[in-house]
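One chain is below:
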Amino acid sequence: MNQFSKMANVYFLCITFMQCIKSISISDGKPAMAVPLTVIVLVSMMKDAYEDWKRHIADNSENLKTCTVYDA
C-alpha cells in the first residue's frame, strides 16, 4: 500500500518540505520532521510486508490442497 495515500503522512511530508525553506522555518532550515516521518513510514512498510507475506503463505497452502472435480 502506498504510504502517502494516508493524509497524515502527506501532511507531515509537506511540513518537512516547508521546514527546508529557511525564511519560513522555525528549525533554521533543517527538516526536523524528516526522521520521525521516515520512522513511521518504514514501520508501516514493514507491517504491510509482513501482512503480505502471511497472505502469500495462506494462499499457497490453500492452492496446494487437493480437491475433487465433478465431471459430468
